[in-house]
Design a protein that fits this description.
Elements (H helix, E strand, L loop, with lengths): L8 H11 L3 H8 L12 H9 L2 H22 L5 H4 L2 H9 L3 H23 L8
Length: 129
């Protein structure tokens, strides 16, 4: 069973709901979204974050999850790539109280739902090996 097939979108949606969005790490692996040159592949950053106690590692994990989720959404042709793929959008939404935080939650929900919709449309089939 290949999870990127059009008829398996329901399984992907179920796994995404059950894992709380962590299933996108599996989709990113299947779609070759990981880069050996990226910051998350360098062990020095993770050691430094760990030595600075737990809080920086938690922030690093959140940024890593958002970055991988955006990469999966971009590969599946989710509309609005210029908005959700720029880090400045995420920073501005995080900094501005109330309205920015509300839009941050809406954009996060958008990026968790629309990749599943695009899997149902068959956009993931071109990554099947």
């Amino acid at each position: 069973m290949d999870l990127l097939k059009k008829e398996n979108w329901g399984i992907c949606l179920f796994l995404n709901i059950v894992t709380g969005g962590l299933f996108y790490f599996v989709l990113a692996y299947f779609m070759n979204c990981y880069s050996k040159e990226a910051w998350y592949a360098k062990w020095q950053y993770w050691v430094f974050g760990t030595l600075c106690l737990i809080f920086p590692v938690f922030i690093m994990l959140m940024v890593f999850a958002i970055q991988i989720n955006c990469a999966v959404a971009a590969k599946l042709n989710v509309p609005g790539e210029k908005i959700y793929n720029t880090p400045y959008t995420w920073i501005v939404l995080f900094i501005i109280p109330v309205l920015g935080w509300t839009l941050l939650i809406i954009m996060s929900i958008y990026l968790y739902i629309w990749p599943n919709v695009n899997l149902a449309k068959g956009n993931g089939e071109k990554y099947i090996k």
